[in-house]
Amino acid sequence: MAGRLFFLCTHGPEDVERATIPFVMATAALASDVEVVMGFQADGVWLAAKGGADAIEAPGFPPLRDVLAAYQEAGGTMLVCGPCVMSRGIDPKNGLIDGAVVVGAVTFVEEAVKANATMTY
Predict the structure, then answer these.
(1) What's the pLDDT tens digit per position in 24-68?
(2) Which of 31, 47, 53, 78 is the most exposed place for a label (fewest CB within 10 A)?
(3) Residue 115 pLDDT > 80, yes or no?
(4) Mean pLDDT, rounded, for 73-99
(5) CA–CA separation, 99 vs 72, rounded Å?
């Protein structure tokens, strides 16, 4: 399998299922040799904050901290909305998990255009 997927995550700890499913899908895609980029906007930025995924467990799914670790281990890319991080008081230099990169709107648009498909959660 080949191709490129862009997952846009806009939900955080307030919706455990919508926080978990994109990581499950993205990790499965990486395991299928699909290139994956995950983007985080709005409350989705909490998932890229240090400790943000630790307590999230959706019924029927593995704990998000485990799926996130698998995604990171597989080399997945994580782009985080700069204005969203700032408006939530998250320190963009020390408050994000390893591998999370703060970007602006142009980068999100570029990733969506480059992808074969964009999935939004």
Answers:
(1) 999 999 999 999 999 999 999 999 999 999 999 999 999 999 999
(2) 31
(3) yes
(4) 95
(5) 7
C-alpha distance from residue 6 to each of 35, 63, 73, 77, 117 (Å):
9, 22, 18, 10, 6
pLDDT of residue 96: 97
Residue 43 near residue 10 (C-beta atoms within 8 A): yes
Do 27 and 66 contact (CB within 8 A), yes or no? Answer: no
Tell me how many domains the chain contains.
Answer: 1
CATH number at residue 18: 3.40.1260.10
Q: What is the DSSP letter of 63?
A: -
Is the pTM of the predicted complex or chain greater than 0.90? yes
Dist. CA 5–CA 99, nearest whole Å: 18
